[in-house]
Amino acid sequence: MHIVIMGCGRTGSALASEFESRGHSVAVIDRVGDAFRRLPNDFQGQKITGIGFDRETLVSAGVEQAYAFAAVSSGDNSNILAARVVRETYGVDNVIARIADSGRAEVYRRLGIPTVAPVPWTSAQIVSRLLPGGVEESFTDTNAGVSVRRLAVNGAWVGRKITELETATGTRVAYIVRFGKALLPEPSTLLQSDDEAHFVIPADVASTAERVVSRAPGAQQ
Question: What is the pTM assigned to this prediction?
Answer without folding.
Answer: 0.61
